[in-house]
Specification:
The complex is a heterodimer of chains A (about 100) and B (about 375).
Chain A: E1 12-16, E2 19-23, H1 29-35, E3 42-43, E4 50-51, E5 64-67, E6 70-74, E7 85-90
Parallel strand pairs in A: 1-7, 3-7
Antiparallel strand pairs in A: 1-2, 3-4, 5-6, 5-7
Chain B: E1 2-10, H1 14-25, E2 30-33, E3 49-50, H2 60-84, E4 95-99, H3 102-119, E5 125-128, H4 129-135, E6 145-149, E7 153-154, H5 157-170, E8 174-176, E9 183-187, E10 190-195, E11 198-207, H6 213-216, E12 227-236, E13 246-247, E14 250-252, E15 258-260, H7 275-288, E16 297-307, E17 314-317, E18 324-328, H8 336-349
Parallel strand pairs in B: 1-2, 1-11, 2-8, 4-13, 11-18
Antiparallel strand pairs in B: 3-7, 4-6, 5-6, 9-10, 10-11, 12-15, 12-16, 14-15, 17-18
Helix pairs in contact in B: 1-5, 1-8, 2-5, 2-8
The chains are: A mainly beta (about 100), B alpha/beta (about 375).
């Protein structure tokens, strides 16, 4: 379980699966979700296994989430914006 | 280190690995010599088509050989799955070539007629926009029709390579990585390959070393004038299934990734990629499948096709040093079934069938009639 050094600085608000999450300006979506205790970001396309961020630097694609209805976003490379609607990525995305 | 085997195969790509497995299946003791990552390794960059239509125009022997391989593929895939547990994801739903203008469609139609007359009817036909839309729901109005061949398909080329090598090992085959063949002492049915300090002695030798074949073949009286032709490929994020059919420029893998490719670039041994070519590949495929526009590309790479002067395979036995065979082509995936299950037994028997005469490199030296 990851803990914030200074929870008071978490001034942004977004939602994950409809639930409110707090973030600091500059947090990536992945960092904010991990700080909020989220353990499962997505399920894999082939076996459906649960996944969470692994590399935190854009390489492993294990942190994929849906952000504001855009699927397969890399949570570790996306900076939180106030009011974002973030959802789990279930398997492969649909073609638009 | 010295090793004596019935047969040695130089080249651990798809051609060499398929032949090596086929030889081992026939009961031979086999050494497979793989040069390593210093080689160009076309087998690591394949698109993965098991493609029949259009192959062997003006060379019926090649058309028939390709068809035979596509028919042997299911047998190979199932034998590999049994031996290794690896699913090579073979699917043969048929293949499409999208035509973006009436001229392209007419040219395709003429090619189908010509090949039908030369090599027989394998069911390839032109389909119109309405039929195509039923097969590929996301297809754009820009596509006026397509050539459809029910024999075409696709497979996972990396899984195929791994399965062939694993099955080869399971039969007791000797896989030797990092073996650059420096020279070969040749006598009829007696070859000694020198790889640094290591030596391999064999009665039967197969040169299937891709672009390295041009250097090795003359050591045993063979002629393999191969040159590189670059192809770039890009692959997207995984998506839910939307494209069942194989096409020559875009296919969706069993895992959902979309592969886009089919550039033909004469750039020597340059394994780079370029934005211009990627743009062309993307633009052409977006004309056919506009919904791909927001798919994220996750990787790009290039590979060098192994091309003979006419693009058709070379298979021959050395006249000066019988027991030495050449095998090269630019369709290591498509022809894997035939290489493993038809070519390898003929090589072990010591003679290529008479129908293979047209694959001899003598065709490059024929006098004009």
């Amino acid at each position: 379980m990851l803990k914030r050094l200074d929870p008071a600085q978490a001034t942004l608000r977004f939602t994950f699966e409809g639930e409110p999450v707090a973030a600091r300006p500059g947090d990536t979506v992945a960092a904010a979700l991990l700080a909020a205790g989220v353990g499962v970001f997505r399920e894999t396309p082939v076996s459906g296994a649960p996944r969470a961020p692994y590399c935190m630097m854009g390489v492993c694609f294990d942190c994929l989430v849906e952000i504001d209805r855009v699927p397969n976003r890399q949570a570790c490379l996306t900076v939180v914006a106030d009011g974002m609607d973030v959802r789990r990525q279930h398997g492969a995305r649909e073609m638009a | 280190m010295s090793e004596a085997v019935d047969a040695a195969v130089v080249g651990g790509g798809l051609v060499g690995s398929a032949i090596a497995w086929g030889l081992a299946k026939e009961g031979a003791s086999v050494a497979l010599l793989d040069e390593g990552d210093v080689a160009f390794r076309a087998a690591r960059g394949n698109f993965g088509l098991v493609w029949v239509q259009g192959k062997g125009a003006d060379m019926p022997a090649y058309a028939h050989w390709t068809l035979r391989s596509s028919e042997l593929w299911p047998q190979m895939a199932s034998a590999l799955a049994t031996a290794t547990g690896v699913d090579v994801a073979l699917r043969q739903p048929g293949g499409l070539i999208f035509c973006l203008s009436d001229e392209e469609l007419e040219e395709r139609g003429a090619l189908i007629t010509r090949m039908h007359n030369q090599s027989g009817d394998i069911g390839t036909r032109i389909i119109d926009r309405a039929e195509l839309r039923a097969m590929v729901p996301g297809i754009s109005d820009r596509v006026v029709g397509a050539a459809y061949c029910p024999k075409d398909g696709h497979a996972n080329p990396l899984a195929t390579l791994r399965a062939l090598q694993q099955a080869f090992l399971a039969l007791g085959g000797s896989y030797r990585p990092n073996r650059t063949v420096d020279r070969i002492d040749a006598a009829p049915h007696d070859f000694t390959l020198h790889c640094g300090a290591a030596q391999v002695r064999c009665r039967t030798l197969v040169i299937a070393a891709g672009l390295g074949s041009a250097r090795l073949a003359p050591m045993v009286g063979l002629d393999m004038p191969v040159t590189p032709l670059r192809g770039q490929i890009m692959v997207t994020e995984r998506m839910r299934p939307f494209l069942e059919y194989a096409t020559h420029t875009v296919r969706q893998t069993a895992e959902g990734s979309v592969m886009l490719g089919d550039s033909h670039e004469d750039v020597g041994f340059d394994l780079g990629t370029s934005a211009e070519v990627m743009q062309e590949i993307a633009a052409r495929n977006l004309m056919a499948l506009p919904k791909l526009a927001d798919a994220t590309v996750v990787r790009v790479w290039s590979a060098l096709r192994v091309m003979t002067p006419d693009g058709h395979p070379i298979y021959a036995q050395s006249e000066r040093f019988p027991g030495a065979f050449s095998a090269t082509c630019h369709s290591g995936v498509t022809l894997a079934g035939a290489h493993a299950l038809a070519l390898a037994p003929a090589i072990l028997a010591g003679e290529l069938p008479p129908s293979f005469d047209s694959f001899s490199p003598r065709r490059f030296h024929a006098q004009a009639a």
